Amino acid sequence: MSAAPVPAPPAPIAVRAAVLEDVGGPLRVETVELDPPGPGEVRVRVAAAGVCRSDLHVLHGTLPVPLPAVLGHEGAGIVESVGPGVTRVRPGDPVVFNWVPGCGRCHYCRIGRPDLCDAAFDMQVSGTLPSGETRFRLGGRALHHFSGVSCMAEATVVPEAGVVPIPPGIPLERAALVGCAVTTGYGAVVHTAGVRPGTSVAVLGCGGVGLNVIQAARLAGAHPIIAIDVRPDKLALARRFGATHTVDAGRSEDVITPVLELTDGLGADYAFEVIGRPETIAAAYGAVRKGGTAVVVGVAAPHEEVAINAFSLPSQSKVLTGTWYGRSRPDVDIPRILALVQAGRLDLDGLVSATVPLDAVGEALEALESGRAVRTVIRMGEAGDAGEAGDAAEGK
Ligand code: COD
Ligand code: ZN
Question: Which residue intervals define the domain Enoyl reductase (ER) in the entry (predicted)?
């Protein structure tokens, strides 16, 4: 009598991926091994990845994560295979990546705050999947995952909760941006601040995320919407996304006085800091009226502190709060945002500065760093179509 044959374990596949070995770079595109998905995991053929400033923060070490790692946390693709126990998606499903995959079991998930999920946070810190394992290898060495996504690669393995299924037919090169920039900006306005029609909004920092704060504020009916940036080209873009007034912070460091002037001397009802610097966080707090709300979207380096006048806390009763991934519920928000895009209420096309192949990821990060690019989209598996990363918004 012979034992039943044991099926051979599925073989890893070879994929090209953007690998960061050390802080400071270089970020190299390498051919790496990718294991099949384990229990509760999904392998996704990546269609497109957006280049976000947080990837740049990892490169510079201001967002410390375990290295070496495959970067990328904003993207979309098609499910290729699923591991044991996966029920929410099937091979062939189009998905957007969710970089805060709530575990559904911790205190924060149970109270309806998956944005604060302990397991998702631990996963980001450990650079692994929730199992504690990694699925990428280079030359026999394990590579870490970034935010459980690592989508600057032709394919990746993520936890089941790290993908949100989306309706078929939506261009994945645009849906990719909903994985971070759009959901973060929209959520900051809709969930964290709860902006009401007719209220005033100031936005400090009009990059990929800040422009989405602006267009969500427009959607919420805010007026005025005051855009503040050091770059005139970003301010021009901000107007296209719904800003009614602009303040050039490159001309004067004092951005509070212009906000007061535009709000009858009161200050804005809401201010959003979308840069990640102590000075601009303090300016956002200073730019809101008594009882108003300042929302910090940007993440400063871990050692930095913000000075807030102690007397103002009780006497002006302002709310100073933060938002992580726009305090969103990605399963609900991502399909909702895509429906708004399809209805013409939110703009994704105007965010895209260029579309490039994976090999141009280094140039795309440089274009973001220099301020030339808003979002560069990396199209996997084929040549890009828009020349140099950092050109003006495509077709605009
Ligand atoms: N005053 C006004 N504007 C400024 C100033 C200043 N002193 N300094 C820079 N700016 C402008 C820049 O000109 C630019 O337009 C904008 O601020 C920043 O935009 P981007 O496009 O460079 O950056 P985004 O929009 O891609 O990202 C912004 C974040 C704040 C989200 C990001 O930098 C961040 O803090 N990331 C860490 C948080 C995190 O991990 N998030 C997870 C995924 S995003
Ligand atoms: Zn991001």
Answer: 24-378
Distance, in Å, from the CA atom of 189 to the CA atom of 187, rounded to the nearest integer, reads 5
Inter-residue long-range contacts of 298-306, CB under 8 Å, 24+ positions, other chains counted: 298/205, 298/209, 298/273, 298/274, 299/54, 299/57, 299/63, 300/276, 301/62, 302/64, 304/277, 304/278, 305/278, 306/278, 306/281, 306/282
Ligand 1 pocket by C-beta < 6 Å: which residues? 52-54, 57, 63, 73, 180, 184, 204-210, 228-231, 234, 249, 274-276, 280, 297-299, 368, 371, 374
Task: Report the C-alpha gap between 343 and 364 in whole angstroms.
Answer: 30
Average of pLDDT values for 346-360?
Answer: 96
89-98 per-position pLDDT tens digit: 999 999 999 9
Q: Which residues pair with 163 in a beta bridge?
A: 97
Residues, CB-to-ion distance under 5 Å, ligand 2 = 52, 54, 180
Assess whether 82 and 118 both reside in one domain. Answer: yes
Angle between helices 361-370 and 53-60 (to 10 degrees): 100
Q: Which atom of ligand 1 is nearest to the CA of 184?
A: 44
* Nearest by Cα to 297 from 75, 52, 91, 94: 52
Average pLDDT, integer, range 255-278: 98
> What pLDDT digit, counting tens, does each position of 41-50 carry?
999 999 999 9
Q: Which residue has the least CA distance to atom 20 on ligand 1? A: 207
On whether residue 330 sits in a domain, the answer given is no
Q: Which domain covers residue 276, as residue numbers?
A: 182-324
Report the candidate in 69, 164, 70 with the shortest Cα–Cα distance to residue 380: 70
316 phi/psi in degrees, rounded to 5: -110, -10
In a domain, 4, yes or no: no
* Residue 103 domain flag: yes
C-alpha 39 to ligand 2 mean position (Å): 27
DSSP three-state, residue 165: strand
